[in-house]
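seq:
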Amino acid sequence: MYRRIHEAVIQSPPIDDFDVFKESKDQNFFESQESIIALCTHLQEVVTAIRDLDESQLKDEFFKLLQISLWGNKCDLSLSGGETSSQKTNIMSSLEELKPLILVNDMEHLWSLLNNCKKTRGKASITRVDIVLDNAGFELVTDLVLADFLLSSQLATEIHFYGKTIPWFVSDTTIRDFNWLIEQVKGSNHKWMSKCGADWETYIKVGRWVYHDHIFWTLPHEFCVMSQVAPDLYAELQKAHLILFKGDLNYRKLTGDRKWEFTVPFHQALRGFHPAPLCSIRTLKAEVQVGLRPGQAEQYIATEPSWLTIGKYGVFQFDGPL
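struct:
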């Protein structure tokens, strides 16, 4: 459907580059201003104090920003039918009460991997984290804040982002959304928000943040065939030390959207897709989920029949050597 919309638009100059979802995505950003200001302010406070943080404090901040990126995935215009899905409350104040809603929590694996890279990295070597993006608007801000923290803490030295080549699933991020959001943040009249935007622009200019387009992300293939269908993209992902896959659609394509048993290991459900250590960061909005403990799914089925699709629950699901 999204490819058909795009085909119709590109055959109709002067609207051949028109994004039919742009207004909704922009509205999500503007309606989330208070939350974005709070998040940018927090980031700048952390960055200012980062040299004084011990390893335990750094880990706590990493976990906090990971969780913010997870719950940012709730802001999904395809789930809300295009209705407003902005983040109007300060998500940082809700993290403790949201923690029990994380069904699989592999954040410790992510910390161990990146902290070990940091400790063993030589002066000239790099640590690369790739982020396969999901929604524009508030969720994209949470992803960029996490990416900024990874550089500032030296847990990573390069961040590579992957978006969609065409408007996709209402609020999915395109290169225009990515650049537009950074410009908006930079142009804010709030000093810390503006500082974030200026820093992000600099990261792009000096090559520490890199944005990639690839048509594969908007094709119907599951990711286990990427090495055959898009070997160039697979080879690019293999350069990463860690790949973060944001959102529900990426999870469905990681697992082939199959009717797996809930207890099937995540590694098995990936069906040979292992370009690099990877983690799905996802709030549940579709009827596929693997890697749960025996009895865990049945517990939710009994108490909340729609638990798989309402975006209330989340996962950090890691695959890779430990």
